[in-house]
Amino acid sequence: MLDLLIRGGQVVTPQGVGNWSIGVQSEKIVFLGLDDQAPQAGRTIDARGKIVVPGGIEPHAHLDIYDLTNPDAGVSTLGPEEDTRGMAFGGTTTHLDFCFVEPGMEITNAIEQRVARWKAQSYVDYSFHVGLMGVLPLSVFDQIPDIIKQGFPSFKVFTTDVMPAHPKRVRLRLDMGRIQLAMDRVAKNDGIMVVHAEDDDLVQFNYERFAAEGRTEGQNMHLVHTKLSEELAFDRVIRLARASGAGVYFVHTSAREGVEAVAEARGRNLPVYCETLHHYACFSFEDYRSPRGFCYHTYPSLKGPDDNKALWHGLVNDAVSTTATDEFPTSLSHKLSGKRIDNVTGGNLGAEARMGIVYTEGVVKRGMTLPRFAEVTSTNAARILGLYPRKGVIAAGSDADIVLIDPSIKKKLTREDFHVSDYSPWEGWQVEGWPVLTILRGKVIVENGKLAGKLGDGQLVPRKVDPVVLRRPAS
Ligand SMILES: [Zn+2]
Fold this sequence. Notes:
Layout: E1 2-13, E2 16-25, E3 28-33, E4 41-46, E5 51-54, E6 56-58, H1 80-89, E7 92-101, H2 107-118, E8 125-132, H3 144-149, E9 154-158, H4 176-188, E10 192-196, H5 200-212, H6 221-224, H7 227-244, E11 248-250, H8 256-267, E12 272-277, H9 278-282, H10 305-316, E13 322-324, H11 332-335, H12 351-366, H13 370-385, E14 402-412, E15 430-440, E16 443-447, E17 450-451, H14 467-471
Parallel strand pairs: 1-4, 1-5, 6-7, 7-8, 8-9, 9-10, 10-11, 11-12, 12-13
Antiparallel strand pairs: 1-2, 2-3, 5-14, 14-15, 15-16, 16-17
């Protein structure tokens, strides 16, 4: 007898969508097929009328980290014990956070610290990107092959310090030489580069110029972190990656120019991928002027309506592979406390809303197919970042990470729909379809609006990227 049977739902798989039943035993999917052939199970979930998708994967979260964007406030983001509760409610069963390595640190120690911090403190599964920052000694790069073997194959770099120098800000930027070195090591060992790409010269010059001109209001953010800056940096990184043979995953793509650079590279068969944020696809710089406008900000910046259109086009069709949040959970007062271009709090609070927003805005409003919905919320992140096929797909042998979406729910989101902080930027947003039941490795962790999971349900998941993903655009 199986542990669990999910019957009668519209199940979304890479092979298509059908009314199938899913059988679960010992945390894994063991049966996917017609209901009359399904084995008996200890518990049955009636999924009639629901859409059944693979558990969401949040590829970009910053939990329990000091806020360098608004550094004088002395605030850190909420930790996994608080934020992953929202992920569970929102249908996200795995997230990727970061362990940042600064000069003076070893990669292994940085990973050990983050792993210890998460242990028994997460409702959902997790792993970490390794972030390489600042003027790192070259010997640090020699550790990359071993780190990949240990199950951490993605390496995040910044091409810019993002913001002006400040006594409490560490240097984020890696020079192009060190990025090339990282790419070389990563490419030879089947890892992947994760890149925050903006042109540092333009960004820093814009900060200087806007300060000199007294135009420091935060609503000018898109004029400091510009479309052109994204275009220049994406192009440069793609050329460097082509020379090194490295696969690249661009985080938080915000502009049409970024999408086009990625599409062009993919047209040349290069293993180049990008994510966008649901915030970037749904809001524009005009929203900075609204009373809670900085809720929607993260670095680089919101862009214009034409960029929203390009991001959605990429998500619905090709070129934009994943949706992420750049999750950065704080209180509302902290999120709104920085009002200048050099101290608006970065990051977003929206991992909980991600699946529901992409369903409404993508599937309901823009004709995204259900298999494509599964790709951009789960499967592609799993493939590109090395969790596939254990995660990201409803298939026999995979982890039973399964989410039921109720497409009949039509509501305006309110504070009560969220479970992390004292606000959500998505309050007031009209949705059609919302996650109602979340299963992590066969265990129901959210059901009937109640949390059934516990801290410690989430486990560290070792990752390995399929070499196919690193040779050509495969997701
Ligand atoms: Zn980020």
